[in-house]
Design brief:
It contains three helices and four strands; from the N terminus they run αβββαβα. It is of the alpha+beta class. The protein has a four-stranded mixed sheet. The longest helix has 27 residues. The N and C termini lie far apart (32 Å).
């Protein structure tokens, strides 16, 4: 269950552009989750990409470290996302600060962010079912 297979990685440039243009987002400082309903293959529920801005971390080694941390926190907590989803979504998980938070802090914020997403999406789902 706690895996991050290649099939879940968001690589499509057009999907990413579309997501930032038309998608919705939810934030829990310093993380931001941009999401959009997406038609994916039948067995897939989600695709996710991670991003750390060059604006905040000039060195690639620093950006790569935080991307690894984001992917790991996603991998461990993706069940929170899957539990709240009835449809397929594409996600971008962004780290948006210069602060160098510890793994534990980022993990805690990721859990809070996923719960916030769940609260934001559930009313939409219930509205669509009516």
């Amino acid at each position: 269950m706690n895996t991050y297979p290649k099939s879940e990685k968001l690589k499509s440039r057009t999907t990413i552009d579309e997501m930032f243009r038309e998608g919705k987002s939810v934030s829990k400082f310093p993380l931001r989750l941009v999401y959009k309903k997406q038609a994916l293959e039948e067995d897939q529920k989600l695709k996710i990409g991670v991003s750390v801005s060059k604006k905040y971390f000039k060195k690639a080694v620093d950006r790569n470290y935080f991307k690894r941390v984001l992917r790991e926190t996603y991998r461990l907590n993706k069940n929170l996302l899957l539990d709240s989803m009835d449809e397929s979504y594409a996600f971008m998980l962004l780290y948006q600060t210069k602060e160098r938070l510890s793994y534990e802090e980022i993990n805690r914020k990721t859990i809070q962010l996923f719960k916030k997403f769940h609260l934001q999406v559930k009313p939409e789902i219930e509205k669509n079912n009516d």
